Amino acid sequence: MRTATKTLIDRLEGLAPRTALVLGSGLGSLVGRVEDAIRIPYGDLDGFPASGVSGHAGEVVAGRIAGHPVLILSGRVHYYEHGDPAAMRLPIECLADIGVERLILTNSAGSLRQDLPPGSVMLITDHINWSGMNPLIGEPTDRRFVGMTNAYHTGMMAAARAAAKTAGVDLGEGVYVWFSGPSFETPAEIRMAGKLGADAVGMSTVPEVILARFAGLDVAAFSVITNFGAGMTGSELSHDETKEIAPKGGERLGRVIAAMLADQTGD
Ligand code: HPA
């Protein structure tokens, strides 16, 4: 058994979450909804990555939300930090090791649509991998040929829509396009992405979706819109803006996810 898996099982003291969350930039407030939280710094988990991005904490927080066991990966490592698209492989595989079956991914993103302004929450229904990268490059087994036709789980998307209704949150839907970052996109790239069929743009999540499907987890993902894409307004983009706006949409997203967990059967 992987050392990190063993440490996780020991520290969780019998808590057996079947749902896990990955929190994106500025979305840490969901952690505040966890009751009886057990906190494990990534540094205590052998092979878990250290994230240097401000707004990303780097710890596992496990406990209950709305009475249901849940494990949160608070803080992710992005491809743009070290050039490794598989940086989140070990944490995601550890989730599968301990019996997690569903992964809910969250991120901050730029909007390509006027009707999805900053502060909106978008359910990701599909994605475009524009980075040219894939976290399974180098995986030697035939398991690397992961089907992506139903990457975003139909049942989880239905649960998300129902939860948004319950929570009174207007939930947008759309396609997320992954640009590697860390520089933001140019206005021409944003226009291109819109023509390709994207609704939101960001620098994360897609490699984790691929890794989660590789690990056999069901996936749902949400974007909190923090800005319009480059060139859509007169102003320059900044990470400070992401950090400032994300918690506002993050509060709404927190309510959707809490309602999703409350509705979950089988835990
Ligand atoms: N582009 C890429 N990533 C982002 C953006 C954006 O406009 N906003 C938040 N994350």
Largest sheet geometry: 5 strands, mixed, barrel
Helix percentage: 25-40%
Category from helices, strands and their pairing? alpha/beta
CATH fold-level assignment: Rossmann fold
Bound molecules: hypoxanthine
For the CA atoms, what is the radius of gyration?
A: 17 Å
First-residue to last-residue Cα separation: 25 Å
- CATH-scheme architecture: 3-Layer(aba) Sandwich
Descriptors for this entry?
267 residues; alpha/beta; Rossmann fold; five-stranded mixed barrel; 7 helices; 30% helix
Write the layout of secondary structure elements.
Elements: H1 3-12, E1 19-23, E2 35-41, E3 59-65, E4 68-74, H2 79-82, H3 89-97, E5 102-111, E6 121-129, H4 154-167, E7 171-178, H5 187-196, E8 200-202, H6 206-214, E9 218-228, H7 239-262
Parallel strand pairs: 1-4, 1-5, 5-9, 6-7, 7-8
Antiparallel strand pairs: 2-3, 3-4, 5-8, 6-9
Helix pairs in contact: 4-7
This protein binds hypoxanthine.
Hypoxanthine (HPA) binds at residues 108-110, 179, 184-185, 201-203, 226-227, 229, 237, 242.
